[in-house]
Specification:
alpha+beta, 5 domains, 6-stranded antiparallel beta sheet, 25 helices, membrane, HAMP domain-containing protein, HATPase_C_sf
Length: about 900
Amino acid sequence: MREANLSRRVVFPLKLKILAIMAALLGGSISIYAIFALDLFKKDKSAYIYGNNRSTIESFHQQVDQLISGNFDKLHVLSLMPQAKIKKLLESYNSFYHLDYKSKLDRKDHFYNINAIEDENLSLSEYKNISKNYESRYRHKNISIHYENEFSFLKMSYVNVDNGVSVSAHISLNLLKQIASQFPQYSTYILQMDGEQFWNSIKTDNETFFNEIIEKKVEKAVVELGIQEPYIVAFKIDPKRKLIFVSKIKKSEAYKVNDYLVNKSKVFGIVILSLAGFIALLFSRSLTSPLESLYNLTIKFSKGEFGEKVLIKSRDEIGSLGESFNFMSGEIVRYMSEMEEKARLENEVKTAKYVQSNYFPAKEISLERSTLSSFYTPASECGGDWWGYMEFDNKLVLVIADATGHGVPAALLTATAHCCIENLKQMTSTNKDIVNSPARILEFMNKSILCLDGKLLMTAFCCLIDYDSNTLIYANASHNPPFHYSNPNGEEATKSHFSPLLGVVGPRLGHKTDGEYIDERISINDREKIILFTDGILESQNSDEKEYGQRRFFKSLIKNTLKENADFKKSIIDDAYEFYGKTPINDDITFVSVEIIKKTKKISIDINDDELKSEVTSMHDLPYSISTDECHSITTITDRMDNTGENCFLISSLSDEDNILKVLKTSSLNHLIGRNAKKMKLEIVNNLKQMFAPKGLSNYINCSKNIAHLVLSKNDFSKVNSILDKFNYDHCFQSPVDYLKIISNELLTNAIYHSGSGEDFIKRSQMDRNISPILSEEEAIVFTVGSDENYIAISVKDSTGRLKRSDIVNNLVRSFESKQHENKEGGAGLGLYLAYSYSNQFIVNTIDGKSSEVICIIDVNKRLKAYKERITSFHYFEQKGNT
């Protein structure tokens, strides 16, 4: 089988290779010479063509300009002549067909040059008809060209400012055609400044290159234009006439002689190559015969006959190669025995590599609050890089280390580091002082590596992410600093979004008895990244022996950082290896990207009514995921009266009175939704947003249409009522202004009389309701009304933050039980009762000690009946005062 592999058919014999080399050398030489010579010829030809084209356009422009100027001179003379002599003078102008004369007193007259008209095979009546019904396709102030079938003429107008006479002449285009005929190789034409053709020697030619000429932004030039059919184009812009004079010639036509020379050169080259091939064949045999002997020797080697020799008499390199083969046959036997020993050692190293690979975490790790994406590759069979992590108490600890050198000794040091972390994992429940401090973790590892007496050292970086406090704590043992990526606004990444984790740098692990490592702290938030790496990715080189370096690495980070973590890691590594090319890396490479992610908020569903359950679970646009596990959910949507925790959303079919007296009074429930709520899905979504991202009224309606007003006393109620009267209610069952006024005035009254603090609060709460307190600007109450396609909303926001759930529920209970309302200290009284009764949703958002906002929402209904049958929803939110 081996002999068969070596005895394969020769596809490309050496003779042909020699022939090919000779042909390549000779052909290359001829080609280089031909390219050089033809290039010079082409440049010379180009200079001639461009110069000739430049002369052509200059001559064309000059003659046309003289023609136009001469005609204007004639018109000037005609404007000075008495009308009686104009006809005779006109007949002497062979190119003039017709003259329109208009005196200063608006007297008009027409003169015709019969001879010139008949020269065009036209009768006077035919000409007059053409002149009367001409189509003006191109206009240029006082010069224009007119076309009528096959007959066209130049119309020129002139006004003599001295005597007020205006003349207009129809002039033959023959002189213009004669000028163009002087340049038979070129297509000449004239353009107006708006791109329309003024005149063209070839009527069917519509390729004017106007846009390309204008883009040049020069007055005159000779350029090559056109994509499918290139042209050499010369142009000159006449600012006086506001015309563009152009001449063009096909490039293929201009360079016809050059192409002829190229074709002849190819024929000459083929003849020379054929001669060289014949000579090469004559001398190839003397080289191929010794090589055949060497080939036969390799066949014997494939059979294991290493004692065989080859006899080659030539004194050239092939003879030396034969001696090398003879020497190699003896050396192979010795190498075979050495290879057996090497294979045994390699198997042991592979085993060590496999064991070391188990020290590393998985490449992609998804944790509850972060994702980890890593890459590791050693420069040899075993490496000196290592990284690991551990989790405890909603914290994440990461360690990355780089031992000096690589190979088996460095790999043994990484095993020590791995064992240290495994031991520390056992301490997370017994000795948290160590695991809560990256500096102490490094000190712990340093003690373990000191036993090597400084023969092997290791750089390391340790960091701890505390998800609860959004803090990153880190310490450095002479490791290259990782990067912290922070881009809170989600902008396009720039270098300003990356910052190295700098600070006090301690000694390498194993270098000193006491490392004296220092903990550094920074804040860290969701969607931010920590990028850890070893110096191998920076110091590995490409084929030009250039290092990848910090600059290229940093540019790659910026370019890819907005990608998902796994794709981000892959792109960084791909960029680096694209730079290395096929050059092996000269150091181990480790890269770890840690991305902080938001904690997933889950909502559980506990509903008995199948129809209602189907309606709620179909809410695909809920801002949080739906779960069946109540234990790990942030809130529960339910219709069960026995499941009324404070953060539950209870959907109730009871009346408003029963909801107050039987549900809110007897539980801590903060969220109750009427079963017949018209927009239940939207209500749940909006109030979930308010629960986790409190923004007040903007979570419920589009704030762009809101109207707000500051209320300082009851005197401002008239302004509030005026705002409500003028508000647009076109999309409602009828104008709800009466309901809105009741809600607004009652809420504002309660807010005014329960404003202030200390003695002000006591005084105002006991004040006669016919007397209005006057609030300061700091105490001002913000009244807002707004609407969108779903809701009309009233918001009343004070600056006390005193309105609590117990106050609201107690007053509503008292109102429903006794049908009486108190207006005493601390009570909301009639105002809250009426606001609740008239609303589809009654929402209170209290920031303790800072503000209380009551939002009353009325559904946009087309029918009054739907409004009257409502069950009012109740939602209460309370936040800390520093929110």
